[in-house]
Design a protein that fits this description.
Elements: E1 2-9, E2 12-19, E3 27-29, H1 31-40, H2 44-47, E4 54-58, E5 64-68, H3 69-74, E6 104-107, E7 111-115, E8 121-125, H4 126-131, E9 161-162, H5 163-168, H6 170-183, E10 185-189, H7 195-205, E11 218-220, E12 236-239, E13 251-260, E14 266-270, H8 271-281, H9 283-291, E15 294-295, E16 312-313, E17 316-318, E18 324-327, H10 342-359, E19 366-368, E20 374-379, E21 383-387, E22 393-401, H11 403-414, H12 417-423
Parallel strand pairs: 9-10
Antiparallel strand pairs: 1-2, 3-4, 4-5, 6-7, 7-8, 10-20, 11-22, 12-21, 13-20, 13-22, 14-19, 14-21, 15-16, 17-18
Helix pairs in contact: 6-11, 8-9, 8-10, 9-10
The structure holds N-trimethyllysine, 2-oxoglutaric acid (AKG) and fe (ii) ion.
Residues 230, 236, 241, 266, 385, 387, 396 line the site of 2-oxoglutaric acid (AKG).
Function: Converts trimethyllysine (TML) into hydroxytrimethyllysine (HTML).
GO biological process, one term: carnitine biosynthetic process
Catalytic activity: N(6),N(6),N(6)-trimethyl-L-lysine + 2-oxoglutarate + O2 = (3S)-3-hydroxy-N(6),N(6),N(6)-trimethyl-L-lysine + succinate + CO2
C-alpha cells in the first residue's frame, strides 16, 4: 500500500511515496530540495547548496542519506546500465545531462525506483543504497578490502590446518585463507614432503607469481644457484621479500623438504604489530619510516638488475586513507643511501635502530623449526621472516603468490554472489 503526494513544478510531476509495508525501507523525501532548486534556476550539482539535486532517504535509525541525481543516474543498476553478468557499467556517463532531474521517485518494497525525463526507469535495492550511502557514510568497515588484522607476538598459537581438508574441502581452504587474512600467517600440516605435493597445495590457493628465481614453484639449498643470501647457510634477520619489486609478492610459502644438520629454524614477526609498538614508543620514528624513501635492488644474478618504480619506497607504506597496508623491509637489499640530507640521514638511522630493536625483541619473535610436512604460508606485505644460520644439508621449496589474486580468492570464499552485488 502506498500513498502518493504530487508536486508540480515547471510541469514536472514528482511522485513522493512512503513505503508503509517494509520496516527496512527508508522514508523518502525530495520535495523541499527540489522546489528550492528549481525555483532558483541554479545548476544543481554546482550550486553547492547542501540539499540541491539530491534524493533523501531517512533510514529507520534516524540517519538520513542523500544521493545526487546525477550519481543515481550514473549508478543505475538495471541490466541496460550495468551488465548483470560482467558487473560492469554500460551506461554512458557522459551522455547523462549533468543537471539531470528525476521525473518521478518512488519508494518500493525492494528498493528505490526513479523514472527519468526520457522514460528510463532505474531501480536500486535498499541494502545497496545503504551500503553505498556516501553522505553520510553509513558502513562501518570496508568489507571488500580485507579481514581486520589481529596482531600477534611470540605467543601466537594457531591451529594448523589439515592438508587433506585444504585440498578436498572448501571449509579447509576457507580456514587456511581466513587465518592468512587475519594473522598474516597460517600452517598446513600433513603435506607430503615432495615438490609436487607442495605445488599442488600452492595452486589450490592461487596461481603463482613468476620471478627471476623461477617459473612458479621454487626450491633452494645453500648452493648459490641464485646469487642471493637465501642460497647460503647464513642467518637472515627478519625481512620481507621482493622489496626491489614495484609490487612485492603478496604471499610466500615455505616447505622444508630435507634437513640434516643444526640450526636453520624459521623466524616470523608480525610487522603490523611491531609498527604499532614503534608508533607508541616514538611517533617521530614511525613518521620517519613512513616518509623516508629507501632505494632497493636485486642484482646478484648475472642477468638481473631489478629496481622498483618508483625507485625508492618507505619501509612503512600507508594508503591514501592513512592505513598501514604494507611493510617493505630487507636491510640486506637496501641500495646506497645517497639522496637524504645529513639531518634526514641521521633521523633515518635513529628510527631504523628503534625498528630493528623491536623486530629483534624476544616477545615479537615466533620461531618454528618447520618440520617437513608442516607448510607455512605468510603475508609478505605484513609478516617478516628470517632464519637462523645452519650447518649441513637443508632444502626448502615454496612459492610466491600475487597479492590481488590471493585476496580475490579469499574474498570469493567468504562472500556470496549477492554480497558481490551489494558491495560493489
Ligand atoms: C625465496 N627465494 C629462495 C626464491 C628467493 C629468496 C630471495 C630473498 C631476497 N633477498 C628477496 O628479498 O627477494
Ligand atoms: O631459508 C629460509 O628459511 C628462508 C630464506 C628466505 O628468506 C627466503 O627464501 O626468502
Ligand atoms: Fe626471504
Amino acid at each position: 500500500m502506498q500513498r502518493y503526494f504530487n508536486l508540480t513544478n515547471k510541469g514536472l510531476s514528482v511522485n513522493i511515496s512512503r513505503a508503509l509495508f517494509s520496516t527496512s525501507a527508508p522514508k523518502l523525501h525530495k520535495a523541499n530540495a527540489k522546489k528550492r532548486l528549481e525555483g532558483t534556476g541554479a545548476v544543481p550539482q554546482r550550486a553547492g547548496l547542501a540539499n540541491d539535486g539530491q534524493v533523501f532517504l531517512d533510514w529507520n535509525n534516524r540517519k538520513t542519506s542523500v544521493y545526487s541525481h546525477f550519481w543515481l543516474r550514473d549508478h543505475c543498476r538495471c541490466a541496460e546500465c550495468y551488465h548483470p553478468v560482467t558487473r560492469q557499467r554500460l551506461v554512458d556517463t557522459f551522455a547523462i545531462p549533468r543537471d539531470i532531474q528525476p521525473a518521478a521517485v518512488d519508494s518500493r518494497k525492494d528498493g528505490l525506483s526513479v523514472i527519468w525525463p526520457d522514460g528510463h526507469q532505474s531501480k536500486y535495492a535498499w541494502d545497496w543504497l545503504h551500503t553505498h550511502s556516501y553522505s553520510p557514510v553509513l558502513r562501518t568497515s570496508e568489507p571488500l578490502a580485507t579481514r581486520k588484522p589481529k596482531l600477534w607476538d611470540a605467543g601466537l598459537k594457531l591451529t594448523p590446518v589439515d592438508h587433506e581438508a585444504v585440498m578436498n574441502t572448501e571449509e579447509g581452504l576457507r580456514q587456511w585463507l581466513d587465518q592468512l587474512e587475519t594473522f598474516g600467517i597460517s600452517f598446513v600440516e600433513g603435506v607430503p614432503t615432495t615438490v609436487e605435493a607442495t605445488e599442488k597445495l600452492a595452486r589450490r590457493l592461487c596461481f603463482l607469481r613468476e620471478t627471476h628465481y623461477s617459473q612458479g614453484i621454487w626450491y633452494f639449498t645453500a648452493d648459490l644457484a641464485h646469487a642471493d643470501t637465501a642460497y647460503t647457510q647464513l642467518a637472515l634477520g627478519a625481512h620481507t621479500d621482493n622489496t626491489y619489486f614495484t609490487e612485492p609478492a603478496g604471499l610466500q610459502m615455505f616447505h622444508k623438504l630435507e634437513f640434516e644438520g643444526q640450526g636453520g629454524d624459521s623466524l616470523f614477526v608480525d610487522g603490523f604489530s611491531v609498527a604499532k609498538q614503534l608508533k607508541e614508543a616514538s611517533p617521530a620514528a614511525y613518521r620517519t619510516l613512513a616518509n623516508t624513501l629507501i632505494p632497493t635492488h636485486s642484482a646478484g644474478d648475472e642477468n638481473v638488475l631489478i629496481v622498483p618504480t618508483p625507485r625508492a619506497n618507505p619501509i612503512l607504506n600507508h594508503g591514501p586513507d592513512g592505513e598501514l597496508y604494507q611493510i617493505r623491509y630487507n636491510n640486506d637489499d637496501r641500495s646506497t643511501l645517497d639522496h637524504l640530507s645529513s639531518t634526514q640521514l641521521e633521523a633515518f638511522y635513529d628510527a631504523l635502530f628503534l625498528w630493528s630493536d623491536l623486530l629483534k625483541s624476544k616477545k615479537n619473535e615466533l620461531w618454528d623449526p618447520l618440520a617437513p610436512g608442516r607448510v607455512v604460508t605468510f603475508d609478505n606485505w605484513r609478516v617478516l621472516h628470517g632464519r637462523s644460520a645452519f650447518t649441513g644439508h637443508r632444502r626448502i621449496c615454496g612459492a610466491y603468490f600475487p597479492w590481488d589474486d590471493y585476496k580475490s580468492r579469499a574474498r570469493v570464499l567468504r562472500m556470496t554472489p549477492q554480497d558481490k552485488d551489494r558491495l560493489l
